[in-house]
Amino acid sequence: MGSASEKTATKPHNVGMKGQIGLQIHPGDELLIRFKDNHGEGIEVIRPRTRNNAMRKLGLLMSAFVVLLLTLPGAAEEPKEKRELLANHETLAVYDGVEYRLCRGLTAFCPKQCGDSGEFATFTVKKYLKYEKHGQYGDPEQKDYLVQVSDYNKKPKGDPKILETVKGMKKGDYVLLSWHHDYVTKEGASSPERPITKLEKIDADKAKGLLNAPEAKEDKDATMKETALDIKTKKPADQIKVKIENDIATLDVLSQSGIGGATITLTNGKWPTTVVLRLHLSGLESFAVSNSKIKLTGSVLSHSGNTKRLYLTEIDKVGEREPESEVKVLDAEGKPVMGLPDKGGYFEITLPKALLEGESKSLKLGWIDFYRG
User: Fold this and answer.
1) Do 345 and 327 form a contact (C-beta atoms < 8 A)?
2) Predicted confidence band at 75 (pLDDT cuts at 50, 70, 90)?
3) Using CB atoms within 10 A as the burial measure, which of 19, 119, 311, 332 is most buried?
């Protein structure tokens, strides 16, 4: 296994740790590799006697590692996946049908090969039966839910049981729909996932009973009556109209010049569970909203396919990550559109929960429709 000094030198490279092996070869060396397999049987790999032949050395190394992979399958295994539950959603919903959607175009594989384009079954949430938030960044209660059922080429995609259940539904059917918001780490990469834990069609009578059942939690409307927001815009001509209903605050930003900013301060009560920003602009080259610790930045390019970007960062820390949100482009009736919004349309962004948690009572908002030369 080598001397203590050799172990110290090789440990930073994980040699001898979790099944990793290091080999040091010098010109003219003659190698003999001896080890035992999982059954205790000895295996030897001997280097041919021809010296100073780089290709033979490379061939020996390749054959040695192939033998290792075949005989020690569990030597370097690590946990394949780490899954952290951030939120649990259990709802009564209505099936709205299937619609074809293209991805946000964030990678070179978009839209055909990224896996995020295709047909989606859509559901409108009518009532929450249970909601639990386990992590700081867990999704708040949602108004709708999407399930991808095919890829870009309309080939079936997803859990066969879910696909079969969706196939047997028609528009207007009531369902019991539950899902998790997980934060998953695998193969060194982390990302959010929202797997379905229950999808069950129910009849109208059972749905009516659930809809009429008394709420087990606090009266949200009574709580929201105490919420008060003070808004100061940088430009007098700019306006932000506020509507708070059912624990959802909608902030409509109106800007004559297309460039501006504002400070939104919570003066009474608590932040609603969901805060939705609607920027009534013809473009969105730059957007930012922040509290004292977290900053959300984004844009929708006015060229190159109108690529959307949205990132969440911690102030004074290096690194960024994608939030559990997106930039939506909607028309005057609130329907999704491609590219940039037409007259009366707007950009919609649901603020990540991280911006509303903690002791921060103030949000700073800034926007630019188009950069000027």
Assistant:
1) no
2) very low
3) 119
